[in-house]
Amino acid sequence: MAPRPPGPFMTLWGPLLAGSVVLGLAACGTAAPVDPPVCEEPEKPEVSSLWQCGPTLDFTPINSYQGEFADVVQDREDAVVLIDGRCTGTLIEASAGPVVLTAGHCVGLGDRSLLVFNFENEPDGDPLVVEGTVIEQSAEPDYALIQLDALPAVTPVLLTTRISERLAIIQHPRGRPKVIAEGRFLGSCNQLVYYTDLDTLVGSSGAGVLNRQGYLVGIHTDGDCDEKGHGANRGWTVQSIVEASPYLQSTDLAER
Fold first, then answer.
1. Which of 78, 72, 63 is nearest to 154 (CA)?
2. Of 171, 162, 167, nearest to 90 (Cα)?
3. Do the Cβ atoms of 119 and 82 come closer than 8 Å?
4. pLDDT over 80 (residue 29)
5. Three-state secondary-structure class, residue 182
6. Residue 102 has what pLDDT?
7. Which residues make beta-bridge pairs with 187?
8. Which of 94, 112, 177, 188 has the most CB atoms lying inside 10 A of its own CB?
9. Closest CA to 171 of 59, 92, 48, 56
């Protein structure tokens, strides 16, 4: 898909795309200057498909994926779960005990949710259905935590503030079997992380945004892409979620 010309947002963040950086929430940039620059969101396309970035949906079934994240995906994808048939979540590591992290607009506080692990094409194990209770829910940052009635034999994913130039999202678009899409980090501003050429759909809300090492840097919540490749999708950074959460602690953010 054709790259869009750089705008103010790209000019601000272009120097950060050469390697890993730590997400900063006080201001845009790796270090807060005396007069921090104003955060500018990417220019929205005239007609947005809301989630699809480019003329095709670049999804790959998780068990057929052989892209650049292949060395870490198989160790992470078991933690990705379909929630109530309409959203995606990820079982994350936390000092108080593993919980499922998803988008706040997917569930309500106190809800009982049905979660399906290993819902995949050519699954490498039987689907596992468990129930859980929503113990935290917020609109801003847009997140929720679900405590499971029973923990599956799945390795939780670690949270981190370290971003990478390339990002991936393992997801259940439209409640379908698990797929992966990858794209490019655009920038982080006002507690949001933006990414381009990274397709999502309804049902992808709450899916984890993974860095190149396979650690979770954000959760996908919104999109503004069009079929010409303009615009960007976005989600809330895990640092903003940890800061807002009574359950999660700063020590739950891994330095990797």
1. 78
2. 171
3. yes
4. no
5. strand
6. 98
7. 194
8. 188
9. 59
**How large a percentage of the chain has pLDDT more than 90?**
64
Cis peptide before 123 (omega within 30 of 0): no
AA letter at 247? Y
Written as six digits, the tokens of 191 are: 């507690």
Spatial separation of the C-alpha atoms in residues 137 and 110, rounded to whole Å: 9
Question: Measured in Å, how far apart are the chain's first and last C-alpha atoms?
Answer: 31
Task: Please say whether the beta carbons of 191 and 175 come within 8 A.
Answer: no
Burial of 246 (0-12, 13-18, 19+ CB in 10 A): exposed
Burial of 124 (0-12, 13-18, 19+ CB in 10 A): exposed
3-state secondary structure of 74: helix
Record the pTM: 0.82
Joined tokens for residue 229: 């490749």
* Paired sense of beta strands 159-160 and 253-254, if any: parallel
Closest CA to 106 of 142, 141, 148: 142
Say if CB 179 and CB 57 are below 8 A apart.
no
* Phi-psi group of 66: left, alpha or beta (phi > 0 → left; psi -120 to 50 → alpha; rest → beta): alpha
